Amino acid sequence: MIRKTALISGAGIAGPTLAYWLRAAGFEPTLIERAPALRTGGYVIDFWGLGYDIAERMGLLREINRIGYHMRELRIVDDRGKRVTGFGTNVFRELTGGRYVTLGRSDLSRLLFEKIKDATEVIFDNEIVGIEETADHVRVQFKHGDERRFDLVIGADGLHSDVRRLTFGPQPQFEKYLGYVVAAFELRGYRPRDEDIYVMYGQPGQMVGRFTLHDDRMLFLFVFVADRGSLPTTFDQQKVLLRESYGDGKWECPRILAELDRTDELYFDPVSQIRMGGWSQGRVALVGDAAFCVSLLAGQGSALAMISAYVLAGELANADGRHDQAFARYEAFLRAYINTKQEGAERFTGAFAPKTRQGLWFRNQVIRAFAIPGLARFAVGGDIIDTLRLPNYRWSSISEFTT
């Protein structure tokens, strides 16, 4: 029997996860990534819940916990670096039964890629520039190279998805900008180091934080209010905007801004959601942020990417490759769950960088109240504990590559 083929655009989190489970469903996946290699740096993610469960099914937990971080505290400081408020993270471990870890997003991407690289065709430094569907296949034109044909095309290419743009239309008709921008960079040798503590400092409309990484590295994260229409696109312009936005900041802001000169890699992106009426059209479907970005500040984007990839592949397995049936079931299963996550993320976004001093004060009072026994569990338990249950699908080739 000839295996059906699927082209997956994007080698971040959703793409490699989908490639893994599509092989388990009996497909022959091809992964294409516009970058010349896997991306490094970026930011850290809190990882738990169903994404954690899927990683376990893929045999990744040992490595995830080895390279991950077990954060002890989120600490908010004032202009002089004095602790204003904060909370311990034990409540998250209690709510998840200890199945909770913080790790670099690029580290998770690398682990997922390692699981599929030897059994999957991977094309780096290339991208999809044309998609044309016929009755029994999809013709795909690459930026570099000849046209190829696939049974299915899946966009796992994030907030700025090319597959979504080529198939469904321009990004602005689906993007809901939440009013903030996130920037991040890392460097070696910064002091002080508060191990396993996320330290945050804020003024109205902006936050900067730092988190210690392995190998004497430090991660810096900025969240600030900005006009979507005037965001810079070049590396130098982005640095200028950060210096302008945080030029009046106290605490360690002057030192952190000075350290921008030492980095040649800066993550910079709007905090947006993608809201679509449907996640598939014909033989083309979307997963992860390409379909339903909940926003970077939601903290669950990587897990949701893995969940959607797992469910899409599983529905294709159950439907014996009948894509129309599988795509409909994939969306029906996840739509309400994703809607709830998006609504929660939109409410939560302003907590990172409240726009007024009164908002900062109120946020700090809420965090201070987390010290009251049981209150943190009550306040965040609904967002931490997943009520969705992963289906058990009919994987046809799982024994070939699960070791």
Task: Describe the secondary-structure layout.
Elements: E1 5-9, H1 14-24, E2 28-33, E3 44-48, H2 49-57, H3 61-67, E4 73-77, E5 83-88, H4 90-95, E6 100-104, H5 105-116, E7 121-124, E8 128-133, E9 138-142, E10 148-150, E11 152-155, H6 162-167, E12 175-188, E13 197-203, E14 206-213, E15 217-225, H7 235-246, H8 253-259, E16 267-274, E17 280-281, E18 284-286, H9 289-292, H10 301-318, H11 323-349, H12 357-369, H13 375-384
Helix pairs in contact: 1-5, 1-10, 2-10, 10-11
In short, what is this structure?
Helices cover 35% and strands 26% of the residues. It is an alpha/beta fold and 403 residues long.
CATH topology: FAD/NAD(P)-binding domain
Tally of distinct domains: 1
**Mean pLDDT reading:** 91
Q: What is the assigned CATH homologous superfamily?
A: FAD/NAD(P)-binding domain
What is the share of helical residues?
25-40%
Largest beta sheet, briefly?
A: 7 strands, mixed
| Level-1 CATH class name | Alpha Beta
What portion of residues belong to β-strands?
25-35%
Low-confidence stretches: 399-403
Molecular shape: globular
Going by CATH, the architecture would be: 3-Layer(bba) Sandwich
Q: How far apart lie the N and C ends?
A: 25 Å
Number of helices: 13
The SS-based structural class is: alpha/beta
